[in-house]
Amino acid sequence: MKKLSDYTGSNRDVWDASAAAFEGKEEWQEMVEALKSGGFSDFDQTMTQTLQGLGIKGRRAVQIGCNNGRELLSLPSLGAVPALGIDISEKFLDQARRLAQIAGSDCRFLRADIYELPGDVPADFDLGLITIGVLNWMPDIGRFFDVVAGLLGPDGILVIYETHPVMEMFDPEAEDPFTPSRSYFDKTPESWSETITYDGSPGEPGPTSYWFTHGLGEIVTACVQAGLIVEQLREHSHSNREVEYDIYEGREAQIPMCFTLVARKPG
Predict the structure, then answer these.
(1) Cα separation, 141 vs 98, whole angstroms
(2) Rounded to whole angstroms, how far apart are CA atoms 98 and 29?
(3) Which residues pair with 81 in a beta bridge?
(4) Which of 56, 61, 106, 163 is the most buried (most CB within 10 A)?
(5) To the nearest 10°, the Cα dihedral for 6, 197, 19, 62?
(6) Of 266, 168, 172, 256, which is closest to residue 226 (Cα–Cα)?
(7) Rounded CA separation 237/130 (Å)
(8) Nearest to 186 by CA among 163, 167, 168, 171
């Protein structure tokens, strides 16, 4: 059995190797131009409505697994203050700092393994964000939420917008993509050795990454055991992950494809 740092170190290497792929997409230049123009938001309708319904104006936000910061830098459009982004990839944080400079934001970005945060990280944020593609990179979901809860101050809100664990049962590239190819309860980490491309195209050979499956019950339980009060849990029928999963949308017998969870730290 590998140590946590073995898994997170390998995943850091694959994200560093994949950063250039994102910057090479048209989306990067479009984002740069939108940030220059003001009023930028990378949130979809589901995330926008979720945040608007929580009254986040003036709240100082931390995002765990912030990637290149594009979601943190979307918060001013809703009245919140992007304060700190934490990610394991220095290459993506390089992008985040450049985007923040373009946006005129003083948001800070910290390169760190979430399981080994420095002792001087503030623990008084009013809003925490976790979005698509974070939870499945975490080998220990209970310990992860303990750290996340520790970043929030009293009455701090945590908002999660993630892929639904049911989606891990299906392989869109299988011969029959609509028959489950993996048990919902299989906890064996999956591994790949190629870079992440963001558009469904094949990646180049690269470092090995590890992907972990956590059931919805495990996620909710980890939140509660970390001392957070779950206020909302909504399942959605649309996809917020890789484009190849779009084939599962709009079916007569629809599966849940993503979820939003809102939890609060007691005051």
Answers:
(1) 31
(2) 12
(3) 60
(4) 61
(5) -80
(6) 266
(7) 19
(8) 168
Q: What are the pLDDT tens digits along the chain (267 aa)?
A: 578 888 888 888 888 888 887 777 788 889 999 999 888 999 999 999 999 999 999 999 999 999 999 999 999 999 999 999 999 999 999 999 999 999 999 999 999 999 999 999 999 999 999 999 899 999 999 999 999 999 999 999 999 999 999 999 999 999 999 999 999 999 999 987 776 665 555 566 767 889 999 999 999 999 999 999 999 999 999 999 989 999 999 999 999 999 999 999 998
Hey, is 215 helix, strand or coil?
Answer: coil
- pTM attached to this predicted model: 0.94
Domains and CATH numbers, the chain: 4-264 (3.40.50.150)
Is 152 in a helix, a strand, or coil? strand
- Beta-carbon contacts of 178 under 8 Å, excluding residues fewer than 6 positions away, are 170, 248
- Furthest CA-CA distance within the chain: 51
Helix (H, G, I), strand (E, B) or coil at 153: strand
Which residues lie below 8 Å from residue 188, measured CB to CB, with a gap of 6+?
A: none
Residue with tokens 């765990």: 64
- 17: amino acid identity, one letter: A
